[in-house]
Amino acid sequence: MNNNIKKIIAILFSKGDPVSFSDLAKILGVTVEEIKNTIDDIKAQIEPIGLSLVSNEVDLQMVLNPEMSEFVSTKEKEEQASELSKASLETLAIVAYRGPVSKKELELIRGVNCSYILRSLEIRGLVNKTGKQNKDYEISVDLLKHLGVEKVAKIPEYEDLRKQVEEFEVSYGEKEADKKE
């Protein structure tokens, strides 16, 4: 497999979203035509493992092939039907009482990678991405409806816990500043 094909697959896999042919060409230092000429070779590499390429004249995206998509959809439905884990509940509480919060902030607070948990909470419709670059998380309107409140501030003990979080952040920030001096 030629090195550019590996790089294109890596870029498409890591992005998850469509990537323009022109961006791929810039990244690899080749022409758009050269990128388009590799599509059949890329398909030959990824189709045996349950992936496909979709493209229009502008963008290229790696996706699950229909057979695997159906399988994953079934597994996601099973996941949604199961109870939330302690880690999911903890993450959801942090998002509720501290949100909007970034994935990075969540991981700093929890001390572990939160990617899988956030994905699961998004699939269940409990959190939404928000913010300028869609990188922060907040609890969803569906969760508010489920809890029987019309806004986040009406969650039990919201104001008290929010104050405690803010006081901790100020105190923690002062301690970190003292360490640097």
Annotated CATH architecture of the largest domain = Orthogonal Bundle
From the structure provided, what is the oligomeric state, counting identical versus distinct chains? single chain
Low-confidence stretches: none
CATH class of the largest domain: Mainly Alpha
Classify the helix fraction into a percent range. Answer: 55-70%
Strand order of the largest sheet: 1-3-2
Shape: elongated
On the 0 to 100 scale, the average pLDDT is: 83
Please indicate the percent range of residues in DSSP E strands (runs of 2 or more). 5-15%
Structure annotation, total helices: 10
- The H-level CATH homologous superfamily of the largest domain, spelled out, is Winged helix-like DNA-binding domain superfamily/Winged helix DNA-binding domain
Supply the helix-strand structural class.
alpha+beta
3D structure, described in words:
The protein is α+β, with helices and mostly antiparallel strands. It folds into 2 domains: 3-65, Arc Repressor Mutant, subunit A; 83-180, Arc Repressor Mutant, subunit A (Orthogonal Bundle). It has 10 helices and 6 strands; from the N terminus they run αβαααββααβααββαα. The protein has helices at residues 3-15, 21-28, 32-37, 39-46, 66-81, 86-98, 103-110, 115-123, 141-147, 158-180, and strands spanning 19-20, 51-55, 59-64, 101-102, 127-130, 136-139. The strands form 2 sheets. Strands 1-3-2 form a 3-stranded antiparallel beta sheet. A 3-stranded antiparallel beta sheet has the order 4-6-5. A hairpin with a 5-residue loop joins strand 5 (127-130) and strand 6. Helix 6 (86-98) packs across helix 8 (115-123).
